[in-house]
Amino acid sequence: MSSALAPPSTKDRSDDLAALSVVPARHPWRWVGVAVVLVLVAQFVHGLVTNPGWDWPTFARYFTAESVLRAVGTTIVLTVLGTVLGFALGIAVALLRLSRSPFLQGVGWTYVWAFRSIPLIVQLLFWFNISYLYQRLSVGIPFGPELYSFETVQLISPMGAAVLGLALHQAAYAAEIVRSGVISVEPGQLEAAAALGIPRSRQLRRIVLPQAMRAILPNAANEVISLFKGTSVVSVMAIGELFYQVQVIYGRNARVVALLMVATVWYIVLTTLLSIGQHHVERYFARGARR
Amino acid sequence: MIEVLGVHKSFGATEVLRGVSLEVAAGEVVVVLGPSGSGKSTLLRTINHLEKVDRGFISIDGALVGYRRSGRRLYELKEREVLRQRAQIGFVFQNFNLFPHLTALQNVVEAPLAHGRARDEIHAEGRALLARVGLADKEDAYPRQLSGGQQQRVAIARALATRPKVVLFDEPTSALDPELVGEVLDVLRDLARSGTTMVVVTHEVGFAREVADRVVFLDGGVVVEEGPPAQVLDHPVHERTRAFLSKVL
After folding, report:
1. Contact: B97, A285; criterion CB under 8 Å
2. How far does Cα A250 stand from its chain's mean position?
3. What single-letter DSSP state applies at residue B77?
4. Are A288 and B111 an interchain contact pair (Cβ–Cβ within 8 Å)?
5. CA of A212 to nearest chain B CA: how many angstroms apart?
6. A with B: how many residue pairs have Cβ under 8 Å apart?
7. For residue range B181-237, what is the model confidence (pLDDT) as tens digits?
8. How far is A199 from chain B (nearest CA, A)?
9. Which helix (H) or strand (E) holds A237?
10. Deepest of A193, B10, B14, B121, by most Cβ within 10 A of its Cβ?
11. Cβ contact (<8 Å) for B114 and A197?
């Protein structure tokens, strides 16, 4: 150490420092790491290609089969409806929890507590079997006359039950994500908006939510992606979404691995698209944060 | 114009304001001085009802701030009514509190747009306000792209955009680098000259001497001394005023 700090000898001092060539620091262990990982990846790829167990011809036959594509469509519909309805309700519940009224806060808290406590699969089966509990649903005045009534089975189809369950479940998590975003906004922002006399709903829409979005988005994207894969849970209700459909097919032809790969690759492809979308939406809401 | 009468305010066990009374006439520039913790900022924040007072009254142009009188009773105003009242009171924060996701012009026009006047008129007025604080060329800049002094000038333009009857300044230069203080004080000076009613909490004694019509010295939650700058700053009567001035001058 001391030798590096010692004044250079007379001969060195005559050299122009700018004329010296710079040797970058070497990182030999990085190259070792790269080599190890490359070997592992090569082995994995080799296995994928040469092991007949993966059964790629079957994979290729089913990957774009019509029944699989239809199931992918159902999965996407479930995800979109679960996300849209879940976040719409979630925003409402978050606003309840953020309200100044202790009563409304309690309502919001109870919702989140209840729907986070019940496992999704249990809730879905409840909705699926709701007609055992209530054969008819009717609109009317309590203890008074009945105005309309429906057969529960007609009102809540299996698909309806799935969407309902996913949305209600999602809303509880979405509410907490939205709330975390809102409380991450600096209090001075609300104070400035209040000092300017901006009405409260506009404060929320124009000042708070755009800033909260930065904290909300990464978590929300997580939720959408996990909901997307979570739709496989509704296979318990015999709805023809992706996971259910491949189960049906391998139940018939016993090509379990190939068909699981069909589902896996579809999940990977769609998750990738969602991640790309997330990147662009995040960039939009980061405006003003970059110089 | 502004009337503050026997205002008390406590945060938990600490009583920050212990009966402050203050009057500000239309067009007057009042500078509030005082050591940190003397209640200056709290006083300012009670005037536009960002803090509710525990006791005492504040009125602007004869209208009580935060309450409505009917016979022998005072009714607390709904939030919407409080917000409408606040539009008459401009407020400039120590930390600017500009909206970071909006451009300079969007920051300025946000409140007038919320109060629903014609869009073109508001934008023209917003540009004029930015020009007035010397930032005509920065209307599309986001706050983070501006220096502290520029941000505070945008914040002043924003406070003026609702055409307030009075503008309150809470230590407008305390968060600025020393070389940026001047540009903000220039804007304040210009406003004072144009007859804007202003209450300024500051540590800039030089500014007080030059611009203030009246200096109010606050300490321990009470007004210790007030009067024209020449009197309070150069011939203070109270020991506490003298002690404070000897530290800051």
Report:
1. no
2. 28
3. P
4. no
5. 11
6. 78
7. 999 999 999 999 999 999 999 988 888 998 999 999 999 899 999 999 999 999 999
8. 7
9. none
10. A193
11. yes
The DSSP call for residue A17 is G
Can you list the pairs that B212-216 forms with residues at least 24 positions away whose Cβ atoms lie under 8 Å?
B212/B29, B212/B30, B212/B31, B213/B28, B213/B29, B213/B30, B214/B28, B214/B29, B214/B30, B214/B31, B215/B30, B215/B31, B215/B32, B215/B33, B216/B22, B216/B30, B216/B31, B216/B32, B216/B33
Structure tokens at B218: 């606050």
Sorting pLDDT into bands at 50, 70 and 90, what band is B68? Answer: confident
Asked if residue B8 lies in contact with residue B15, where contact means CB atoms within 8 angstroms, the answer is yes
- Residue where the block lists tokens 């023209």: B124
Give the residue among B87, B243, B7, B221 at the shortest CA–CA distance from A193: B87
Tell me the whole-structure pTM to 2 decimals.
Answer: 0.80
What is the model's pLDDT at position A1? 44
Which residues of B are less than 8 Å from A184 in CB distance?
none
Beta partners for residue B29, in sequence order: B198
Q: Which two tokens stand for residue A229?
A: 């894969």
Give the residue among B34, B9, B12, B43 at the shortest CA–CA distance from B225: B34
Q: What is the mean pLDDT of each run of 10 residues along chain A (291 residues)?
A: 53 70 90 96 93 89 92 94 95 93 96 94 88 76 75 77 92 95 93 92 91 91 91 87 92 92 94 93 80 49
The tens digit of pLDDT for each residue in B104-125 reads: 999 999 999 988 778 899 999 9
Minimal Cα distance from B108: which residue of A?
A196
* A288 interaction partners in chain B (CB closer than 8 Å): 100-103, 142-144
Q: What is the pLDDT of residue A15?
A: 65
Residue of B nearest to A191 (CA): B50
Asked if B93 is an interface residue toward chain A (Cβ–Cβ < 8 A), one would say yes
